[in-house]
Amino acid sequence: MDSLAQDIASGSGESLSTLAELLAVPVENRAGFYSRLQSGFNEIYTSSAVQSADVIEGIYRVASNS
Amino acid sequence: MSSRAFTGLLRTPERQNQSGTRPCGSPKAAWLLFLFLASILFPSYAQAESYADSLVEKAISLELHKSREWQVLLHYKPDMLGSSRSLVDDPGFFNSPEGKYDSEKELRETIRAFFRTDSENDAHPQCRFIARYAWLKDELSIDASKLPAVDCKGYRELYDHVRPRRAVLIFPVSHMNSPASMFGHTLLRIDSDKESNMYSFAVNYSAITDETNGLFFAAKGLLGFYQGYFGLLPYYEKIKEYSHLENRDIWEYPLGFTKEEVERMLLHLWELKEVYTYYYFFDENCSYNLLLVLEAARPGVDLSGMMPPWVIPMDTVRAIKETGNNTGAAVYRPAKASRIRHIEGLLGNDLRRLAQDAAYGLRDPDEIGKNGDIPKDDRARILDLASEYLQYRYAKRMVAKDEYSARYLKVLGVRSTLGQIPEYKITAPKPPEEGHGAARLSLGAGVKAGASFLSLKARPANHALADPDAGYLPGSAITFLEGEARYNFTEEKLSLERFTFVDIVSAAPRDEFFKPVSWRVSADVQREEFARRDHRTVLRVVGGPGLSYSAPHDSLIYGFVEPEAKLGSGLDDGYALGAGVRAGAVANIKDWWKAQFEVRAATFGAGDSHDIISAELNQTFSIERDRAVMLNIKREKFEGFYSTEVMGYWNFYF
To answer: Do B413 and A2 touch (CB under 8 A)?
Structure first.
């Protein structure tokens, strides 16, 4: 969870690529996926009380806003 | 069989009997009747009995109990008396009460157990001993339709979860400051087809203990006090444990196992589920037990047989390399601390300070993010360093959760506005298997106070501060059971100069981000020269805390405060209690040239009162991986006795 937040904030990392694989993001779309999540960081992690379910929902929301 | 059919069958012979076609007294008729009854009453039983018998017979005539596969599946090993026994201690692992010692009986009972009808599905021996069943089924061409039908749901679910495809040997390096893990650790990872291995499964063998004191753990471990179990858990949990909490770099060695072999590994692990083996720190430890699992997966390879009587995790890595089971380059997974040190190294002092301030909440991350005086990439690095350091401090419980979460998200929020920067390329140190062998034999000669001598030293493990660093954790040293014998030409005498039971040095460098306490401890028997040509043998226990710092040119400076106790009949009152200080530096001047300078002063008051002051310079020249030359010079003042000792050694590591 914390590692994923860190990866999303920096736009790269193992947790982030694992997430992309789990969500079946095609390899050629991953760079775009990473930068969308990075710029949407504050929408995904709205507060320090955020729950995993909110994070997943946030990721879906941000990733589908293209 | 329905109950109606069952009662119907039961009645038929009764009627025949009543009809009196045959007198009851005829033994032959009764026997035939019994067989007849038995065959209708328990048709599957009788057939099963004979089928089981024929399978047992076939297995024994094929001598399957002597086959390598059976031996590795049950962990049979020859013992010191020439017979063999299984290393597994849990009676639940065997089908025969004598299974631990008798591979043939175990084979017979195992085959029979597959026919049992008093348990079903996961609890049934076909599921419980699924690896044995799978192997015997192939070897004996067992017709499964003649056996009780079972559904091994537990295993099936595990298989679907793990999706075994590849196996990797995992080696977290030694843990600075923890004696129980000073040799590192080994575990296995089972990968699926996924690219990412964070969700792979880690197979870990460990002793079950709530002992938190590392020294007690090690001591009890030596004596086999603990039960060891295999466990399966997500690899990311292990990464968290090693890389985040204990700050140990991890090396990953891909094993060239086929899918079938990895599946066999999983079957075998299923059999070892909840099965205990007494855990011994030195021989039957994590590394040894993992080798047994690898052998079960690939019976053709004998890994455990090539082990010395003591197994250290590094030997496992060497064994899989030497037997060609490691395919592909080792992957280096730097620990959190290595990452922090790397980013630290990319930033100057001032910028590092900013990162620390942000992590401590002394500076608003926003202010750093918007600071136009600092290049954008460096601002991103500062915030990366701050978030890494926050995680580190949280893992070490140096910051409360609420405070951490709020600050962490704040830092990351600002970091997310700074875009991507070039990936951190953390240079991997020399892989551990490229380090010197743990055992060492030293042949040397020297002169002390005008008397010349020959010296022979030997130790089984592991690494001394003066040994070449490649492959080992710098500043961390542990020596076990080292003996030194000397022949003194002047005295014409052969004597035991020293026997070291254990000598541990943990010199962990401190900086702005990390504040570990160093320590050392040693126990030995030493022949000390307390006056010219006057010797006494003393048992010494010495150790204490210290501080270490990194210095330029890949060097480490350290200082220790050490209480010391000596016992020996040559001492006044038979003992001496004192304290000393020790300070020094170790430098890697070149790849092949290491130097250590150390000064020491100790004073003994209680018991035998005396003072010792010494200075020494030890130099090590690496010739190749397992050869080195050492040159040591030591000047010592022992009360009124001044001596100079010069020694040269040729070191063989293996």
So the answer is: no
